[in-house]
Design goal:
It contains eleven helices and 15 strands. The strands form three sheets. An eleven-stranded mixed sheet has the order 14-13-12-11-10-9-6-5-4-3-15, with helices on one face. A two-stranded parallel sheet has the order 1-2. The chain is 32% helix and 21% strand. It has 355 residues and is α/β, with parallel strands linked by helices. α6 links the parallel β9 and β10. It has two domains: 59 residues, DNA polymerase, domain 1 (Orthogonal Bundle), CATH 1.10.150.530; 285 residues, TIM Barrel (Alpha-Beta Barrel). The two termini are 15 Å apart. It binds iron/sulfur cluster.
Length: 355
């Protein structure tokens, strides 16, 4: 049986678990301090614990539930980590350097059940939900890689493989660990959870943790969105936007609407005009993401001129808009590309096994 990872527990939960094994109450904080503040990931090196306690921890617990199989480096500095679960599944986590930020994009499931038609992950189908410890471990691995380049992870986005709100229990537990001041120590304002529109779970997320919400909209009519995001047949655009209006966010926070632009599908001037009407009255910002093509994709990236025209129309309609620069598309690490099959195009810069 695989040992339990310390990464799935908040400080209080780990304190209770270790106390039940005879550890002093303060040992949990020491262990988490080593991991999250000192980047020491081996119990044997946690020198302020007694030797027999380090041995006991190593016998009954682990740090990493995930094994780092490889790290792929993109030309723009983006790094994609390929991580293996104990039951042999492969997941991907992306580390993205941007100006003064270092953002890690984590996966919440092995594969995904939602089958969005432009997304490589959707083709994989759903393997299983990731545990809270496996989600937190992606940040720990990414932090380890970032440290080798003299940086710290500053932001976390749940935009990797899977639909976070279909694994909400484990996603919430992972967020609680990540925002625990004595564990991950991240500000909830620096954590964004993205959903394709699992309407019944949106309010639950916002009430449980004050993280930012991103909604994958991708279309301005139900007809087109039904094609791109099949979940729209259950929760159409009007229902989704009503849930956004009810999302418990502070007055200063905006909901991000992710809009993957696809040539001749949703990149027209009429789409831009409809989008203005859809987000009117919401504290919203729109991120335009020109499609990242991947092997087997049936859709094409829009022309640059179409992206500029779309952004200009939104800005003219007083919608806050950004065009996302594609990060890591040469290593299939960009949005919608995770799990893309063309591994032969990738050369790992680090191939290793690390638990
Ligand atoms: S876009 Fe997101 S929700 Fe849709 S199939 Fe891909 S991973 Fe799943």
């Amino acid at each position: 049986m695989k040992p339990k990872s310390v990464l799935g527990s908040s400080t209080a939960e780990l304190r209770d678990a270790l106390s039940a094994q005879g550890f002093e109450a303060y040992r949990a904080e020491q262990v988490l301090h080593w991991i999250f503040r000192r980047n020491v990931l081996d119990f044997s090196a946690m020198s302020n614990l007694r030797l027999e306690q380090r041995r006991q921890l190593a016998a009954e617990w682990c740090v990493h539930p995930l094994e780092r199989a490889a790290v792929f480096g993109g030309e723009d500095g983006t790094q994609k980590l390929q991580l293996l679960t104990h039951d042999g599944a492969s997941i991907e986590t992306v580390l993205i350097p941007e100006d003064r930020r270092y953002t890690v994009c984590v996966s919440s499931q092995v594969g995904c059940s939602l089958d969005c038609s432009f997304c490589a992950t959707g083709r994989l189908g759903l393997g299983r939900n990731l545990g809270a410890d496996e989600i937190v471990d992606q940040v720990v691995h990414a932090q380890d890689v970032a440290h080798t380049m003299g940086n710290d992870v500053s932001h976390i986005v749940f935009m990797g493989m899977g639909e976070p709100l279909l694994n909400l229990k484990n996603v919430l537990q992972a967020i609680r660990v990540l925002i625990d001041p004595k564990a991950g120590g991240f500000s909830p304002k620096r954590i964004t959870v993205s959903t394709a529109g699992v309407v019944p779970k949106m309010a639950e997320l916002g009430q449980a943790v004050p993280v930012r919400l991103a909604v994958s909209l991708h279309a301005t009519t139900d007809e087109v969105r039904n094609r791109l995001v099949p979940l729209n047949r259950r929760f159409p655009i009007a229902t989704l936007l009503e849930a956004c209006r009810r999302y418990p966010a502070s007055d200063r926070e905006r909901i991000s609407f992710e809009y993957t632009m696809i040539r001749d599908v949703n990149d027209s001037a009429a789409d831009a005009q409809r989008l203005i009407k859809l987000v009117r009255g919401l504290r919203a910002k729109v991120n335009l993401i020109p499609l990242n093509e991947h092997p087997g994709a049936n859709f094409r990236r829009p022309h640059d001129a179409a992206v500029s025209r779309f952004a200009d129309i939104l800005a003219h309609g007083r919608v806050t808009v950004t065009v996302r620069r594609s990060r890591g598309d040469d290593i299939y690490a960009a949005c919608g590309q995770l799990g893309a099959v063309a591994r032969e195009a990738e050369t790992p810069i680090e191939a290793e096994t690390r638990r």
